[in-house]
Structure prediction request, 337 residues.
Amino acid sequence: MINSIITGVGHYVPERVVTNFDLAKVMDTNDEWIQERTGIVERRHVETDSKVSSTDLGVIAAKNALEDAGITAQDIDFILFATLSPDYYFPGNGVLVQKELGCRTIGAMDIRNQCSGFVYALSTADAFIKAGVYKNILVIGAEVHSFGLDMSDEGRGVSVIFGDGAGAVIVSASEEEGRGILSTNLHSEGEFAEELAVTFPGTKTGWSDELLKEGNTLTKKEIYPYMNGNYVFKHAVTRFPESIIEALSAANKKPEDLDLFIPHQANLRISQFVQKQLGLPDEKVYNNIMRFGNTTAASIPIALSEAKQEGKIKKGDLVMMTAFGAGFTWGSVLMNW
Prediction:
């Protein structure tokens, strides 16, 4: 039986550290307010006007993952790139990675599921591997949020949360017993799409010419990310446990069987709430939102890469990865490492 295992992980974050105190200089906020509501102390941003893109970050993370797996770009036979901050409206980042890494003319697919993007991409890779279609799939989650955040008092509720970064994994086919992805689940609830969204540009709200018109009626809500924070929080703390229990039940496992839980780093308060519901001790939950903020599609692979580097994951460990985000979309991946 063919299983999907992660053979390599890697991540990269920009060198520029932006603290809560830095943000307090440009908007009406403070360190205590941000930490109390999100748990975030600092985040990484690319240098202003550097033109560093999500593809650029993703390529570095991918190279680190390839090195960790002990293979080259020529061994990759498919690319999945999860992001909400692509280099271009089109084409997608996947083909840009194919070019930059010098891969063969393999397929490349972009996943547009925001905070749940990496979980959706990993689930897709698992299906391809188990179907015997591909042997080594490169899965990337990468974001550059800082180029499109409203750094004013009006935007502080969103802008203090997000950071830039990238993570990548190599998903490979294996017949080794006792390892691999055991179960996945993916969900959506489009009824609440506008509760967390960027609606411009788009065929529903218009195109860039609108910005050139005299007296254009575009609002900050249309141009910048909008989030109904309390609404998102209430749904997240419900959907997280549901998805986790679903994944565990599909594999005949229980929360106490987990060796490590890696939640999407949306908000430390959400992670702590879910941790308490599941009855997991601190050593079984990995959080790094304090240092990186919410990097959406990149958050789980960055955390996964750090956890491996720190020796918190060993072969055979039962690992759960769960995400919830815009769409609303959510899902989980359960695997024996």
